[in-house]
Amino acid sequence: MMMNGANVDTGETDEGTLVRRRAGLINRRSFLLGSAAGVGALGLAGCVTSDGMSFAEASRVYGPVPDEKFPIPAVDVSKVDPKYYRKTVRYETKEAPGTIIVDPANYYVYRIEGDGSATRYGANVGRDGFRWSGDAYVGRKAEWATWTPPKEMIRRQPEAAKYAGGMPGGLDNPLGARTLYLYQNGAYTLYTIYASSDAESIGSGITSGCVGLLSQDMIHLYSRTPVKTKVIILPA
User: Fold this and answer.
1) 125: Cβ contacts below 8 Å, ≥ 6 apart
2) What Gene Ontology biological process does one annotation of this record name (predicted)?
């Protein structure tokens, strides 16, 4: 899973899925699946979910972000399990406020707020065989980063070759609106926390080891995360 700079194997979707989704080579999941979720959502409107956020509130939190360089559309929150909506939760830890803790087994990312609380975000994580654990830190940050597929990926997925020179930032770029690059001992680990526009990916293992948050959640986390922030990846 070697990578150059910002690329798919740094944690976006696995190579085949990523290129197909972002380059528009295949459709998203079946219409029937989306329709069923949409019908179920009708019953949630105005109701409080088990995690405390109403469907209406989630629609506001994950609404469009028009003032971005590339305006971000609203999330179809009917396609996200309510337990993955952003939430302030109790979280006892000795880690300093600001620390990011990734819990891949449960598809959550926590930002420690202090006083026994944390902001919790739903996430997608590495698929089986690509999950990892350990301590890292944010070595650099980027808004609307360029994505460059690694040579290893191009060999496996020749259709990615057209991006060998880099894909500029934008809504179709796998890294999305914000990227946190994870480092250890001064070296880039090849993993990122990135912004995903795929609502259906939250709560699943689809990447090559990186961690994706919904764009609105990633913007929220990014704005509160300086370079050198400690990041802990828990065992899956």
Assistant:
1) 102, 104, 107, 131, 204, 205, 207, 211, 212, 236
2) regulation of cell shape
Q: Does an H or E element contain 69, and which?
A: none
| Alpha-carbon span 101 to 123, nearest angstrom | 12
The rounded distance, in Å, linking the Cα atoms of 219 and 196 is 11
**Residue 11 and residue 43: Cα distance in Å, rounded?**
35
Q: Judge whether 175 and 12 are in contact, CB under 8 Å.
A: yes
Listing DSSP states for 170-205 in one string gives STTSTT-SEEEEEEETTEEEEEEEEEE--GGGTTSE
Task: Read off the tokens for 107.
Answer: 């598809």
Structure tokens at 163: 């991006």
pLDDT tens track for 7-35: 334 444 444 444 444 444 333 333 223 33
Single out the residue of 17, 216, 168 nearest to residue 8, CA to CA.
17
* Contact present, 217 and 176 (Cβ < 8 Å): no
Contact present, 221 and 99 (Cβ < 8 Å)? no
pLDDT for 63-108, tens place per residue? 999 999 999 999 999 999 999 999 999 999 999 999 999 999 999 9
List the domains of the chain with CATH numbers: 8-33+83-233 (2.40.440.10)
Tokens 């990122």 appear where? 192
